[in-house]
Design goal:
Shape: globular
Strand content: under 5%
CATH class: Mainly Alpha
Structural class: mainly alpha
CATH architecture: Up-down Bundle
Radius of gyration: 19 Å
Oligomer: single chain
Largest sheet: none
Helix content: over 70%
Length: 213
């Protein structure tokens, strides 16, 4: 408005690549669809790693939606969105660890064939998304968090497929639980990395505007 002071809302905004915006929309739709596929498939297969991956797809879909919402905003607000996403990623990892312990306590062994088939489908989807977003991996915290989400998903899907083979070969639930723990570790470590960069960018933008922190 007229007469406003120089604050975060008045700082320059980022010039957004149409390709990045399009890639985010495609990623959002694919992740939302795979959430439903994995939540249903994971229930039938009784696989904790598939359930974890389904929640990851849901979280990523929400993250892509948030990223689209803040693309044209200032660095401060893009970093704030990235901070929220980083906290969500870390919280997701903690949730999976709790789920692993609970499943171990119940002694549930998953069905490996369905588990592996869904893992292959999820991997194909995430490889497509990761390739689309690869060119934007060195952007700000918001862009970087999007890239990390897609990269982690592809790694997690490969691990789910390996776990399915392990369950099939051993008849044990432990390969499934081990992979779920790996997914949890990726969520926590990547979340903390995004949080660190987002905090630095928020501080940088406020300093550039002469605002005390």
């Amino acid at each position: 408005m007229a007469g406003c002071g120089c604050n975060t809302m008045c700082s320059p905004t980022q010039k957004i690549s149409p390709k990045f915006r399009k890639a985010l929309w495609i990623a959002l739709v694919l992740n939302a669809l795979m959430f439903f596929v994995e939540i249903i498939g994971g229930s039938h297969a009784r696989s904790v790693s598939l359930w974890a991956d389904a929640l990851d797809f849901a979280g990523d879909a929400a993250n892509y939606a948030i990223s689209l919402a803040v693309l044209s905003m200032t660095l401060y607000w893009r970093a704030t969105a990235a901070l929220l996403k980083g906290m969500t990623m870390a919280a997701f990892g903690i949730f999976v660890i709790v789920k692993v312990i609970w499943t171990w306590w119940l002694g549930i062994t998953p069905e490996p064939m369905l588990m592996g088939a869904i893992g292959v489908l999820a991997l194909a989807v995430n490889v497509v998304v990761a390739l689309m977003l690869y060119a934007f991996r060195d952007g700000d915290a918001n862009m970087r968090s999007v890239w990390l989400c897609s990269r982690n998903d592809a790694i997690a899907n490969i691990a789910v497929i390996i776990a399915a083979v392990g369950v099939f070969g051993t008849g044990s639930m432990f390969p499934d639980l081990f992979v779920a723990f790996i997914i949890a570790y990726l969520g926590v470590s990547s979340g903390l990395s995004v949080i660190k960069q987002a905090k630095a960018e928020r501080k940088q933008d406020r300093h550039s505007l002469g605002i005390k922190v």
